[in-house]
Amino acid sequence: MTAKSITDTLDSLADTRQAANLARFFKTGPGQYGAGDHFLGLKMPVIRMVAKQYRELNFAELADLLASGIHEYRMTALIILTMQYARASEQRKRKIYEFYLDHRKGINNWDLVDVTTPRIVGDFLLHHPGKRSLLYRYAQEGTLWERRIAIIATSAILNAGQFQDTFAISDILLHDPHDLIHKAVGWMLREVGKRDQAAEEQFLASRYQKMPRTMLRYAIEKFEENKRQNYLKHNK
Questions:
Q1: Which of 97, 93, 194, 188 is nearest to 148 (CA)?
Q2: pLDDT per residue over 42-51, tens digit each?
Q3: Which CATH architecture has domain 1-108?
Q4: What are the CA-CA distances from residue 34 to residues 38, 102, 216 (Å)?
Q5: What's the chain's average pLDDT?
Q6: Which parts of the chain are coiled coil (predicted)?
C-alpha cells in the first residue's frame, strides 16, 4: 500500500466537470479562502470507498497525501486516519491525534476540518480534558483553519453534555472577521441548543445583539419562529 497506488485509483475516478463545480464551490479563485486548491471531482462516497481499501496505510504515505495540492488526496488521507483512530488502542489514538495536528497545514478547507476534526481531535480531547488549552490557543492565535478546528472540535465534547468549551471558544471567536468562523460558531451553538436550549439562550442573552448576523442565524435556526424573529429584530 502506497500513496501512489491511492492517487492512481483516485485519478482513475476523476470527473472533470464535477471538478470545475467543486473548484467554484470551495472558492479556489485568487484571494479566496481555497485559493490554489485543485479537485478531481470526486464525491464523498467514492472517497470513503477508496479510503476503506487503503485504511492500513502508514503515516509516511499519509503524510505524502496530506502534502498534495489535490483536495481529494488530502481528504482520503484524513478519512483513513479517522478509520484508524476509531479502532486504535489508546496509545495509537494519541499518535494519530499528534500526527493529525502535525500535518494540519494540509487540513485547509472547511470540509476537511468538519468531516474529520471531531472524530480525532474532538474525541481525543473529550477524554483528555487537560489538553484542551490547544483549542484556546488556536482560537486566539491561529490561522483560519486552526480557528475552525478549535470550534468544530468541541462538537465531540458538547455531544457528551459538556458545553463550557464551546461557549468559551465561541466567546473568543465572537467577533472573528471571517464568515466561515461565524458559520462554524453558530453551528456549534445550535448543536448545544438542540441538547439544552436554555443553556444556549443563557449564553446568547448578553451577546446576541452584537453577534455577526450569520452567526446568530445559524445559532437560532431551530428556535420557534416568533422567538427567532425576536432575536433577529434586536441584532445590530
A1: 188
A2: 999 999 999 9
A3: Alpha Horseshoe (1.25)
A4: 9, 20, 25
A5: 96
A6: none
